[in-house]
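Quarterly update, task 2.4: iron/sulfur cluster-bound model.
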Amino acid sequence: MKYLRNVSTLELFADKCTGCGRCVEVCPHEVFEIKDKKTAIIDKDLCMECGACQMNCKYGALKVNAGVGCAAAIINGFITGGEPSCDCSGGSSSNCC
Ligand code: SF4
Ligand code: SF4
């Protein structure tokens, strides 16, 4: 399943990646693949922003704004014409979903 194109906040810092493969194991949507001993993002639009990769990468090589991919965020994005954000975290940086 693909989500809205070009809205995922997923970022990879390749210089920090050790190629341990943990992100490949935990990602439910097969976003990553190990290539040349480092992870590579195969298709960013497959990312549902669950946050599992960031939580499991102990080298800080991944960053994602977990939660903004939820249904409420997408609907709010359509209604307001802005970026998908459910804002249920009350403006804090804590994960909402
Ligand atoms: S979990 Fe982190 S260090 Fe390991 S392969 Fe993925 S991005 Fe690289
Ligand atoms: S946030 Fe979730 S779906 Fe997106 S790349 Fe990370 S583990 Fe995969």
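Highlight for this quarter: The helical segments are 22-26, 52-56, 71-80.
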